[in-house]
Design brief:
single chain; Rossmann fold; 47% helix; 158 residues; alpha/beta
């Protein structure tokens, strides 16, 4: 094998594949993800979906912990405002995320690494589109190195 082919092979192996954590509410966004899958719409496998009862149940510390554990981006998906199964849950989410964005700015984590989207159960195509767009955005930002936990890195190396 020539040297150029080896270099190309190594470059392909080192392609950045971001780890994305997606918190999805059970009633709308998770169903939208399910619809995207059953409709055979594609979005990257790097997205790890965490199902929550409502978007208001997402503690901002969950998002900080995801970054600490190596996530390159975190997206919160909830019902459209006014359509929440629990009436006002997504209004609480919106307020919490505003405070969290200020905290992330203070910590030096790019604002673009975190996102909030409203996706209903009937919007499978929108879910796939939002996920693809978010992954591209994170790829442009590169790897998250601001909030990494040294203990996690040491465990991965052993």
């Amino acid at each position: 094998m020539s040297v150029e082919m080896q270099v190309d092979k190594q470059a392909a192996e080192k392609e950045f594949r971001p780890l994305i954590v997606s918190f999805c509410c059970n009633w709308c966004s998770y169903a939208g993800a399910d619809l995207a899958g059953s409709s055979r719409l594609t979005y990257p496998a790097e997205i790890k979906i965490i199902r929550v009862p409502c978007s208001c149940r997402i503690n901002p510390l969950f998002i900080l912990r995801a970054f600490q554990r190596g996530a390159d981006g975190v997206i919160v998906n909830g019902c459209h405002p006014g359509d929440c199964h629990y009436s006002t849950g997504n209004y609480f989410t919106r307020r919490r995320m505003t405070v969290l964005f200020s905290l992330l700015d203070f910590l030096g984590i790019e604002r673009a690494r975190t996102r909030v989207e409203w996706v209903s159960a009937a919007e499978g195509a929108r879910f796939a589109s939002v996920m693809n767009e978010f992954v591209e955005q994170i790829r442009k930002l590169g790897e998250n190195k601001k909030l990494g936990d040294i203990r996690c890195i040491e465990l991965e190396e052993n």
